[in-house]
Backbone:
């Protein structure tokens, strides 16, 4: 493989195959890959300020009925290892996150057949009342679709308020491969 050609394709925002990406990973010095990544960022976001956020992923539950082919995390309802995260567990994880400079909680988890809209509304209200400055990043389109199905409701409308998840709505092909 021609490394220079692959790097140029990457700089042109062309997709690379897994094999091509692995070739670059295994043969190109990290500093050179960093330079390409910076060049790509500068094309998209030329500001000289880069920011990040410290957050923590917490699973609301591992109970799931979605049957995704790629997931080895889930447990079926009634399984001995099934759980729903408790308020005390959230408090412990949030307080540890805040002590370490974190300011956001990413809540994710399975499609639990018994956890409807009121569960999530109550959870979010409780967490925001206890930690008003904490940013909650939660409920992507698959979770919203699941909850609305449980509630016999609809989830049509804008995706603008869904943090970082619009790709799930607008790009179905990667999801189908699993």
Residues:
């Amino acid at each position: 493989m021609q490394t220079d050609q692959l790097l140029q394709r990457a700089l042109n925002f062309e997709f690379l195959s897994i094999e091509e990406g692995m070739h670059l990973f295994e043969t190109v010095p990290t500093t050179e890959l960093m330079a390409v990544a910076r060049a790509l960022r500068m094309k998209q976001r030329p500001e000289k300020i880069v920011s990040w956020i410290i957050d923590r992923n917490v699973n609301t539950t591992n109970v799931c009925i979605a049957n995704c082919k790629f997931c080895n995390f889930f447990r079926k309802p009634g399984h001995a290892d099934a759980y729903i995260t408790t308020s005390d567990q959230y408090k412990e994880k949030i307080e540890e996150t805040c002590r370490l400079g974190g300011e956001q909680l990413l809540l994710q988890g399975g499609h639990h057949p018994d956890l409807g809209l009121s569960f999530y509304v109550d959870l979010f209200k409780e967490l925001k009342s206890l930690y008003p400055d904490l940013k909650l990043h939660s409920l992507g389109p698959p979770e919203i679709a699941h909850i609305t199905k449980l509630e016999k409701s609809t989830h049509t409308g804008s995706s603008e308020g869904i943090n970082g998840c619009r790709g799930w709505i607008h790009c179905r092909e990667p999801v189908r491969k699993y």
Q: What stands out?
A: The chain has two domains: 3-44, 55-176. Strands lie at 55-59, 104-108, 135-138.
